Structure formats: C-alpha cells, structure tokens
C-alpha cells in the first residue's frame, strides 16, 4: 500500500495584498492530511500581514512568521524552509495561485513515485486575462517520459523556465545539496539549477497546476531596476556548485553555461528591464561572466545567437548595439496565425518604444474604449489647451469614421497602429474615463489620470464580487492591476470619493474637483441651448423630456422598461421626447414613425442635458449630472427591488430621490402631463437636498482644478 507523503508549502509574502487571498484560497482548499503552510511576511508594507493573520485564525494549517526586517524573496524562502517539517517542500509565490485540486494531485504523484523533484505543468497568466501554457512543454512530453528520469536523459529541460515555484522538492535531498537562495533578483536559480543537475530521479506531472502571473506591476520581469545585475551573483553560485560536483558531466556544464549566457543577453535585450544608463555596464558584466565560466569544449551556437555570443566574448558593446535581427512573415501563414503574430509583433514594437525617453509634453486621451471625443477627458483636454498649451494632446479612436467625427483641429491616432503604440509607450500623461488596454503596461514616470464617467448609485469594482450576474465573469485581479496604474482619480462629490475608494482600493490620489464634463451645465448659455435643440430637430417652443434608462445586467440587449412611444403620444405634440439608450447599445430600436427622437447615437450627452426641460431616468448616473442644471427630474423605477438585488446600490434612491418617483407607465405619464406633479415645491425641495449632497463642487471650474493638479500650468 502506498504510504502518504507530508507536504510543506512555503509562501514568501511582500506587497501582494491584492493577490494574496486568491493564492491562499487555492492552497487551503486542499484536503491533504497534515498539510503545512508556512507564510513568511517579509515586512510587507501593505495589508498582507493582516490578511495572513486573519486566514491563520481560521485555518490551523497556516502558520505565519512576521520577519523583523525585510530579507527579500530568497531570505523569506530560507526562513520558511527552516520551519518546514514535510517530506516534500513546495515554494509558491504569493501573487500566483494553484489550480483546483493541485495540492492533492501533487501529493498523490509524490506518494506513488517519491522522486527527488516533481516538476509540475504551469500556465502563464497575462494582465489582459489571457493564459498561455508552458511553451517548452514539448521538451518533456516528446518523446513520452518515463515516470522518473534524470537531467542527463532529458537535457532539454534546461531550456524550460528555471524558477523554483513549479518544482516540488524532497526536503532531505534539498538539504544535502548545500545550496541557498540568493540575494536580490533571480534568487531561485542558484537553487533550481543544482536541484535538476544532481537529482537521481525527476518526475513530470503534465497538467497546468500552477498559474504564474506575468507582467504584474512591480514584478521583476516588468520592472526597470539595477537589481537585474543580481543575476551574475546567482550564476557564480551555480558554477561554484558545479565545481563541487565533478561527477556532473562536461556536456551538462556546457548546457548550463549556454543557458546562463542566454538569460543574461535576454535580460539586456528586453525593453524596460536594465535602465538605459546601466546597459553598457550590464553588457560588460556579461562579458566577464562569459570569460570566467566558459567551460572547455563549449562552441558558439549557430545563427543570431552565435553572433551575440561572439560579440559578448569580445566585449564589443558598440557592435552589439547595432545588431538588429530582421524577420519577415511568410504570406502563406493562415489568418489566425498571422493575427497572433501581428499581436506578438505589436507587443514587441510597444516594448521597443518603451525604451525611448518619455515625452514630457505629450498627453494621450481616450473615452469609452476609444469610441470618440467625449466626457471628462474631453473637458480636461479643452482646458489643458488653454492652461498648458505646451502639452500636446492626442486622442485615440478605433476607426476612421470616429476620427472624422472629432472636432476640427483635434489630433488623433488610430488604435493598434505603430504610431499609437509609440504614443502609448512615450506619453507622460494618459487620461481616460475607462481603463486603457491591459497590455499597455504603466511606465515609470508616466502619469495616469482616471476620470470615471459617473457618480455611482450602483455597485462598482470589488463591490461586485458577491453579485455574480452583475459581475458577469469580471476578473477582479486584473481590475486591481489596472487600479495600481492610476496616479489620480477624479471624483465628482464626497459620496463618489467614498464609493470609489471602497470599490477600487489603491494608492492613487483622489482629485475632489467635481466632474469636468459638467462645467458646461453650471451656467448654461440660452443661445447654446436653442442651437442644440435646432440641431436635434426639436420643434420651436416644445417642452423637451429626456429619457435615459440604464443597463440591466439580466438582459443581453436593450429591453426598455418604458413604452416611450406611448408616453410621447400621451404627452401630445407640444412635448418632444428624446430617447437615450445606454451607451452599451447602438440605438433604442425605435420605429421611424415613433414620434420620439432617438438620440442614443449623439456623441455628447451634455448637449442632451442642456436641451431637456425635464429628465426621466431610472438608476442612471445621468441624474447626478443633470441635477447641476437644477431642472426637474423624475425617477421611473418599475423594477427597483430587482435592480437592488441584482446589481446592488450604495444608497436607497427611493428614500432620497432627486424628484418625483413613478412606478408605472401611467404614473409617469400623469407626472409629466401639463399641470402634473413633476415640478412642485415638494420636488424642488428634494432636488435641492440631492444637489447639496451630489453637486457641491460643480461650479464650472472642475476641469481647471484637474488641469492645475496634473499638468505643468504656465
């Protein structure tokens, strides 16, 4: 009968509060008897220590050590290893997570085979939510592996990722090697190389059990730092181990050397890692490493890699810089492959542009996923041109048609073009009312301004974690990575400040400025109002009712809660109803003879507010903006109970509405009829209270406050 194994999982923790719960949940879901989880709080500056203690209080399998001084990732692993008692030890990084059932599956394989090292399959997880299986997996499955093997039998294993986190190690075997995790970056390779080189039995579990987070803000693979040169100390430790183990054959020594040189030039060539001013010194140290450790019998590889190695050996920095490989795409590639390669090409081009200096006088603007020129970013852009004219603003749009609709003289770029990639990589300022694509990694020195696009009645961000229908598969980890890029968050009122900080926890600065897009509403120009009505086709002298329903998560398409055509007919020819569907939908789907003007496609919603005498909405943030005008608002709430249950709300709108409330179509028609109760002393009092709470900073100068806080104003 197979004897069960005991397993210790060592979890070094530093600055990962946003990711730690997912990691802990994935580990502690295991049913393995006697599982030991050792978490080492390496003086984490965030809430990580508190999170660990809270989990430990609920689960005795988790033991937490709070270090008195920061020891770095390697030191934290060593501290955890000292406490490990399991037959096997697994070093898991606390910003990653394990697949369902991973611990129990690993334990079963260990009990069956008991290798020195069990290597698990893994998947890379990118900030945009995409996953990629291990690209070197074929080296272990082609030809099929026996249950156990050695590195000499499958030397291609040295081409795979050399991190420790996908290797479960027999603890006594690790102790016998007399190796230690290094200090600084790449600290685990001084352990993983010896593990593989000396093992008498390796085994591979061909399933993606470990999810490795790539391109996370703050991760070493995504951070410019002089500490990338720490790799050379780890290389020295690897070759010191080889010197102590002459039984490891010369062929493996040559492969290890080749792999370390390859890693060094990859670090050097990857944009955004080695700071520009240190690149020549890093190259010099690569040359020293090459000359010091090159083993007898080593030959240069063929092709471009061989040219690189020769230049490294010679110390020819100038020639190395001029080396630029050229590649062409065969025209016969299938379309899906071409798209994938183009995507990879865009990422590579973007990373290349990131090596260029930041343009201190360049700002990139966008709104609603590159749909056009609108909302808070547009108002900030216009004020910036007045107060900081030396800063050039460029708008991102998706299509030439959207570009043609931009105001005259507004510079633009089409998304996913080379110029777009260059602007995104080099701009000092990036302003958006939603998040930029996750592949656009924040660059040190850039300034991201998140304006949002409405005062929240409904739950947002992390508050949707318990609202599965409303969240609709939202990736909360990715959301937090987006939030980590924000330098400023614009808030329209104190309520929004509180709600935003709860829904989007981060270290950004809140600009309590009011909403720039509402500056136009603070002191409307009657001539402008008349001009807007004329452009919309409103008959002269008509009363205008604007209807702005919000999105319902339970519906895949626009499903109106109100028969707006019947309403327009009930109100008669002297009232014009403007129908504005949520921006998720192209239009309201009204027939041509509806007697209602469908303004869903009108690009600037503030125009519609100015044109309207009365706003009818349900739970849309339009009520907060429209209140700046101090005109009547009617809340049409036929499904308030359902909306609260599905979406969740920050306050009871029925208890503090901005005006009269209707629950049925007939009630709404009666309120809006001439002489109805839509505009009375009672509703004026409700509106005044609402304005005091939600419009305290809307004085027409919000955009100026934002510009003066963010941009270099002359």
Structural commentary:
The protein is α/β, with parallel strands linked by helices and 714 residues long. The chain folds into four domains: 7-223, Spore Coat Polysaccharide Biosynthesis Protein SpsA, Chain A, CATH 3.90.550.10; 237-323, no CATH class; 350-518, CDP-glycerol glycerophosphotransferase, N-terminal domain (Rossmann fold); 523-695, Rossmann fold (3-Layer(aba) Sandwich), CATH 3.40.50. The protein is built from 28 helices and 22 strands. Helix 7 (189-198) runs parallel beside helix 8 (231-244) and helix 8 runs parallel beside helix 10. The longest helix is centred in the middle third of the chain and has 20 residues, at 250-269. The termini are far apart. 40% of the residues are buried. Residues 324-342, 554-558 and 583-588 have low confidence and may be disordered.
Residues in helices, as a percent range: 25-40%
Q: N- to C-terminal separation?
A: 80 Å
The level-1 CATH class of the largest domain: Alpha Beta
Flag low-confidence runs: 324-342, 554-558, 583-588
Number of helices: 28
CATH superfamily of the largest domain: Spore Coat Polysaccharide Biosynthesis Protein SpsA, Chain A
Rounded mean pLDDT is 88
The largest sheet, given as strand count, sense and whether it forms a barrel, is:
9 strands, mixed
GO molecular function: CDP-glycerol glycerophosphotransferase activity
Protein name: CDP-glycerol:glycerophosphate glycerophosphotransferase
InterPro entries: Glycerophosphate_synth, Glyco_trans_2-like, Nucleotide-diphossugar_trans, TagF_C, TagF_N, Teichoic_Acid_Biosynth
Keywords: Cell membrane, Membrane, Teichoic acid biosynthesis, Transferase
